[in-house]
Structures
1.
Amino acid sequence: MTSPKKVLVTGATGHVGSSAYLALADKPKKYEVYGLDCTRDFSGRVTAANKKVMDIPDDRFHLCDLADFAAIREAVEGMDVVVHMGADPGDDGSWESLLNNNIIGTYNAFEACKEAGVARIVAASSIMASQGHREQEPYKSIVDKRFDEVPENYPVITPDTPAEPRGLYGATKVWAESRARVYSNRSDMSCICIRIGQVERDRPRPPNGHDFFVSQRDIAQIMECAVNADEELRFGIFYGISNNDWRWMDIEDAREKLGYVPQDRAEDNHVY
């Protein structure tokens, strides 16, 4: 019988991290899941449903700061996969916080995983790495809901399209993707980045979000798909969004290489 895969989820008490943790912890025969965060308290955006069932045992929880390399290094020891969700998620976060959490913290996670011989790191990127495309046509017409002005066969944005961050937060995520590429080339570690869309409590916030909405179960699914992707996949950037009618980001690559099959659409909850 195959032993459960050891997986550490950083940012485990956060909005997305808690969903990733629960999706894996729900399958104890497949995964031995650990959590890491700078606090035991839940983020204000964590759903009531997640809070109700979230219970990380003390012997599987690491309370530490992402900027503390020694603590991160200890936490990743013996792991097969690290799902790195920890970050300052604020688009208006201070430079000091973004530097410590999103730059230094991300460097620490990758470097610690390399030293510990972790086989794969699945890192949270963000749709904010592509935010600038929403200001350009034909995507701006989609955002503004001028659907009759959108060409029938408009080109979708793929992970190979140059990034278009519009703030420090988005820029830190582009930097994280670059670090992932470096480590995939200069180590034996597989590095997969997920550009996470707008994760809501299973409904997009009106009036916007219909293009890059992703449900709780879809984001949990793509994270698990990335954990189990073919070991030959050394590097990849994928969009983690639901199957929205007006998405302008490509998810076919995620379907093909990760086996991602989104279950939800923004339109399931709102009429646009």
Note: Residues 37 and 158 are 31 Å apart (CA to CA).
2.
Amino acid sequence: MKPQTKFFHPLSANAALNISSKVIQMCSEKKAAHMGGALSITDFLSVYYSFFYDDIVTSLYYSKGHACTSLYAALAHFNFFDSKELESYSENGSIFTSHVSHHVPGVELSTGSLGHALPVASGVSYAKKIAKSNHVSCIILSDGELNEGSNWEALLFIAHHQLPCTIVIDYNKLQSFGKTNEVLDLEPLSKKFEAFNLECIVVDGHNHSEIFEALSSPNNSPRVIILNTIKAHPLKYAMNTLESHYYPPTEDQLIEGLKDIQEHYERHICK
């Protein structure tokens, strides 16, 4: 079911509204960090789980594990578990740890130590290829995570063996210590992937139709999808700020943020 409007489909728009709202609620209630990076990937997760999880992509490796709230909220929205279970997020003994845990239903791999998920996924994909399986891995990485050399080793391996991997880069251009082009410049990023003989698609990471089209393209060989995103999107007070990487919303900011999210997505939802 292809998105019918230029930017959104009601199904994925509703998912993004609920997931984004849950992210800022969790961060506010638990005084948790990494809200900005969680929000920048919400639109991709909404499209991915709305249209592709059962049909095309059989496993998701969420490498940017520090931004766990968006994945947890997405899995709850798509009924991997009851959303009430998220009330225990970050508490002692909870499976919903502050970095992604494989104990959570729907999670393939515990992550948070950056640069690990892509090598693991490449090994799984290689084994599946040997077994002549139709398995396809989708791996979500942050942009700052590309500072880790293990990712580039895995990309060499994936390209050489032509493994069925969809590698997604959340390119919000802010990492823990500043702008990516100032900390360790990644540009020209798409040309780097192409130099590895990998197909590279660049899209607006908040445009559901562009995300849908990118995921719908033939996937007989490895590909990279670069999502041009905005950290903390669509919160007006926090978008494109380094502070959103660390500080949870205050009570007033939570109210303001929920309003921003509602206004941004509700016009795309069929009543």
Note: The chain has one domain: 10-65+114-266.
